[in-house]
Design brief:
Carbamate kinase; eight-stranded mixed sheet; 40% helix; binds aspartic acid; binds magnesium ion
């Protein structure tokens, strides 16, 4: 069997939902479990409504709920004109009535605890999956809607609950029985405690639901269907020739996510990766394009992508005390530790240490303490450009190619991870785009 997860943009309107149903139909013999997010920006609207209710803006809260209600009713009417119409309308009316009384309650007591907020947010996925299941049924698919709250057991940390994998595996083995020829539809994002109280896995948590279910079921694959063709070799808004990466390892994807390529949050796919279940990223609007396969280990050496992160500050300490002395770096990092400042890249020589930190970090107090160790220089307006891949050095002439591509930019720091999955360069922000473009052209052009 396999798990297909569709994000909010993939179920945002009737046309998209029809695509989703086509994709599910095409893999019906693989016993699909379909996990759906809330439609479009519904979760944001629910969040706004809960906040408005809490601050006593009753009219605003009601308007937001009216809008959510009518959006879902319109979508449902567009998709179901036959036998499913009446049961679907009844189900939507029951859900929105429950949502309205919850919001009304929050308005009365002017308090919305994280627990109440999770209850409010759950309606997005409960509504969307009700519609998707009816629409699939009306198109002849043998479809069962299963409430994810009966499958995924979490602790009571509302807003970002932690799943109990053992209890979940048990619930899944009892509550889900995917069969070739039928479709199971369930909600992403929502779960429940042992007492049956609704929780959520945190914003964007539907991917997590998909991989938790995939892991519990021992799925053949988990497919994350979204609005891009997969993970790209570079940011397509910056680099014209950016292409989809066919296959990437979990580590490499995590490295790229740090640089903002957040197609999937690495942490949310861990349950699948741990069980060696491949995770695919696919485009709902272009199902024919192959997408990106993410696996625990990548099978091939090579450069996968370039990425960058701006807003970086370079901190350099120069001190002759470092010469032939031990304990210097420990003293240095102890200061960063005390100030809770996280360091990303480090390069050392006999007399100096350079480090990068996030530009938003307040450096004043830290700098004063560092001055006790040596001369401190702080330069902001830098960025990190990073090449991600496996066994980068196996490519002959790799280093000279990189330097040729970087030229004429001024490189302030270079760091090559011992894992050989990334090479990072610190350059001026103004030079970032040029460096990215030249690196992509030289090392990633087809
Ligand atoms: N609907 C939820 C959100 O918007 C979960 C998700 O989309 O993954 O955060
Ligand atoms: Mg989403």
């Amino acid at each position: 069997m396999k798990v297909l997860k569709f994000g909010g943009s993939s179920v945002r309107d009737p046309q998209m939902i029809l695509r989703v149903i086509d994709i599910a139909r095409a893999c019906l013999n693989e016993a699909p479990v379909l996990v759906a997010s809330a439609m479009g920006k519904t979760t944001d609207a629910l969040q706004d409504a809960a906040e408005a209710a809490e601050t006593g803006e009753r009219d605003r809260a009601e308007q937001l709920i009216d809008r959510i209600d009518s959006d879902h009713v319109c979508t449902a009417k567009a998709l179901c004109t036959g036998t499913e119409r009446v049961p679907l309308m009844t189900a939507i009316a029951a859900l929105t009535a429950e949502l309205r009384s919850l919001i009304h309650g929050i308005t009365l007591i002017r308090e919305c605890s994280p627990r109440s907020k999770d209850a409010v947010l759950s309606f997005g996925e409960r509504l969307s999956t009700t519609i998707v299941a009816s629409a699939a049924r009306e198109r002849g698919l043998d479809t069962t809607l299963v409430d994810a709250r009966t499958l995924i057991r979490t602790d009571a940390s509302f807003a970002a609950a932690t799943p109990d994998m053992t209890a979940t595996a048990e619930l899944v083995s009892v509550g889900l029985d995917p069969q070739p020829g039928s479709l199971i539809v369930t909600q992403g994002f929502i779960a429940s405690t042992a007492d049956g109280v609704t929780t959520t896995l945190g914003r964007g948590g539907s991917d997590f639901t998909a991989t938790i279910l995939g892991a519990a079921l021992g799925a053949k694959a988990v497919e994350i269907w979204t609005d891009v063709d997969g993970i790209m070799t570079a940011d397509p808004r910056v680099i014209d020739g950016a292409r989809t990466i066919p296959a990437i390892s979990y580590d490499e994807a995590a490295e790229l996510a740090y640089f903002g390529a957040k197609v999937v949050h690495p942490y949310t796919i861990l349950p699948a990766v741990r069980r060696e279940i491949p995770v695919w990223v696919k485009n709902t609007s272009r199902p024919e394009s192959p997408g990106t396969r993410i696996t625990g280990r990548s099978d091939s050496a090579g450069i996968r992508a370039v990425a960058s992160k701006s807003g970086i500050t370079l901190v350099t300490i120069r001190s002759s005390r470092m010469l032939n002395a031990y304990g210097f770096l420990q003293a240095l990092f102890a200061i960063f530790d005390r100030h809770k400042v996280s360091v990303d890249l480090v390069a050392t020589s006999e007399v100096s240490v350079s480090m990068t930190v996030d530009q938003s970090t307040e450096l004043g107090p830290l700098e004063r303490e560092l001055q006790e160790l040596g001369r401190v220089e702080i330069e902001s307006g830098k960025s990190i450009v990073c090449l991600v891949g496996r066994d980068l050095f196996q490519r002959s002439g790799f280093v000279s190619e990189v330097f040729a591509a970087v030229d004429p930019a001024h490189v302030r720091l270079i760091s090559l991870g011992s894992s050989e999955i990334n090479l990072s360069l610190v350059v001026d922000e103004a030079e970032t785009e040029g460096v990215l473009r030249r690196l992509h052209e030289k090392l990633l052009a087809p």
